[in-house]
Sequence to fold (232 residues):
Amino acid sequence: MPSLRVRFPSQRGETWTVCHGMARNAWEPRTLRTEAKWVHITCPLGDAIEWVLDGRVRVHTAANGTVWWTAPAYEDLALARARMEADAEAVKWAAAAERRRKSAEERAAAAAQRRRDAERRALKRAVEMAAEIRRLARFFEVTGLDPAVWETFTQMVRSASGKAIKWGNPSPAHGDGLLVYSRPRWERGGFNLAGVVCPDPEALVEWSAELTILVPNPGWLSRIQAAARSPL
Fold:
């Protein structure tokens, strides 16, 4: 049972006064912005005893285990405050959960979009490469190059040159070799003739020193070296 702390009368005729052990809940106005707290009240000891015996006050236990006497109405008020806080917390958690759900959906949608974009780019590259293979079918037939490795060969040329490149057409003026054009990657100007792929070794007489010869394998390199004449 909670104990009552009383103050002795300072003068004859004064009553004993309870200074601790009786409390009320102070919460005005009743909004979440307003602090709610238990406040110990003072009252005549006789009144406190009467309230206890009549059942007008009852024991209240705080969250930290402290106990005191209070009226049921104040307990109801504290309960209402606790419910309001719980409801507000539930709303906050629900809102946070909804934000997380939407964020997860947005990330999933973005990931799906990236996959679709990647698939479209891959399909576009595949279509473009298939068209390029068809365009160069005669060149592959004459040179004996494998169309299946052409994309890899293209990537190697780009990596080795450090430039943007594009393939032209087989050129009779260059030993039926395939023309390759290039430009610096950071520029937006036109492409310039930079080399020839697999020219006929017999066409290497008086070959321009500025024009690079590209070969895809050691076999072609041997043929070029065997046919090379000064000043090539």
User: Anything to note?
Assistant: The chain has a mean pLDDT of 89. The first strand starts at residue 5 and ends at 7. Helices lie at 45-54, 72-135, 137-143, 150-161, 218-227. The CA atoms of residues 113 and 119 lie 10 Å apart.
